[in-house]
Amino acid sequence: MTTRQATAPPVVAGHAFADTTASDATLRRFLHGLPGVDQVGAEQRAAALGTRSIKTTAKAFALDLAIRMVDLTTLEGNDTPGKVKALCSKAMRPDPSDPGCPSTAAVCVYPDMAGIAKKALRGSGVHVAAVATAFPSGRAALDIKLADTTDAVQAGADEVDMVIDRGAFLSGRYLQVFEEIVAVREACGPAHLKVIFETGELQTYDNVRRASWLAMMAGAHFIKTSTGKVQPAATLPVTLVMLEAVRDFREATGTMVGVKPAGGIRHSKDAIKYLVMVNEVAGEDWLDPDWFRFGASTLLNDLLMQRSTMKTGHYSGPDYVTLD
Fold first, then answer.
1. For residue 264, is it left (φ>0), alpha (ψ between -120 and 50) or beta?
2. pLDDT tens, 86-140?
3. 77 φ/ψ angles, rounded to the nearest 5 degrees
């Protein structure tokens, strides 16, 4: 896991966008004034980038990079301390037979498991990410969302994955969503904030672009597609729109924001498609775990099997890796 890179802090209310976020009317005017997304064009470009292939040393590099970008995730009602500890062990040493295999970026858990993960990962460089703010629905009073966030950070979370209130967003109550993100960002303290849109519920690519700008203006360190609980979750076209947004936001403000597709990414070939897209759309600077992550529970196993196949020259079956 790399050390976090120094960068300008995310733009927050009262700074560059203070006039824009002064009222619902001004915020709506700004968001609806963003260039519209050409749906056909976005889908065609995503499909074209998905046909690119990389081989040999470039593929080996991509597999290791993808492993380093994984937020290894368990978000189930039956999660136990034992399961979380086992996942942390796997995150630190994904392939115990190969000391050269990199660790993952983080382990993502519910807030009540953050302390267990923090203890298990101590000294490893693997971060603890905790979902918060009434995940996955985002439907709770603000004081409950802030308490959820505070509990996660106090338990040891290095990163907080919050969900926006999609009902408020789709109703056009943009200022409410903005102010909630600002408040959660403040409650995070030193922890990094990832803002989840649940893009499968946002209905249009234009809404994905608006949500991206809204979250970045409110101070998000990362913007994230999905909770993994709603289908469709991460898709290449949606991620393309989000990558365009972080690229344009950096050009406008000088501030870099990360992107995290999550949900439904299970195979190495799919991860590589995302990495190609990152390079082509946002740029090489985002090819780093500090700026791009995969939210996944099963992707790591396929990355490990493909990595072993490249090293040994023969296919490693599913019994090569541990089941999560």
1. left
2. 999 999 999 999 999 999 999 999 999 999 999 999 999 999 999 999 999 999 9
3. -65, -20
pLDDT tens-digit profile of 173-194?
A: 999 999 999 999 999 999 999 9
Catalytic-residue membership of 83: no
Task: Indicate whether 2 pLDDT > 70.
Answer: no
Percent of the chain with pLDDT over 90: 86
Question: 109: helix, coil or strand?
Answer: strand
Sequence-distant (≥ 6) Cβ neighbours of residue 237 within 8 angstroms? 42, 43, 46, 205
Query: Annotated catalytic residue: which of 71, 95, 161, 165?
Result: 161
Average pLDDT over residues 158-175: 97
Contact assessment for residue 216 and residue 192, using Cβ atoms and an 8 Å cutoff: no
Long-range Cβ contact pairs of 250-253 (< 8 A, separation 24 or more): 253/8, 253/11, 253/16
Q: Is the dihedral of CA 210, 215, 221, 227 positive or negative?
A: negative
CB 243 within 8 A of CB 234: no
Could you report how far apart the first and last alpha carbons of the chain are, in Å?
21
Indicate if the pLDDT at residue 275 is higher than 80. yes
> Which structure tokens are listed for 240?
């393309």
Q: Mind giving me the DSSP string for 22-78?
A: SSHHHHHHHHHTSPPP-HHHHHHHHHHHTT----HHHHHHHHHHHHHTEEEE---TT
Marked catalytic residue, from 145, 194, 260, 273? 260
Q: Which residue has the tokens 């993960």?
A: 117
Q: Domain 36-312 classified CATH 3.30.230.10?
A: no
Question: Can you give the residue ranges of every domain in the chain?
Answer: 36-312
Residue 161 designated active-site: yes
Q: Write down the catalytic residue from 90, 194, 224, 273.
A: 224
SS3 assignment, position 247 = helix
Question: Closest by alpha carbon to 256, among 207, 300, 223, 230?
Answer: 223
Q: pTM (2 decimals)?
A: 0.92
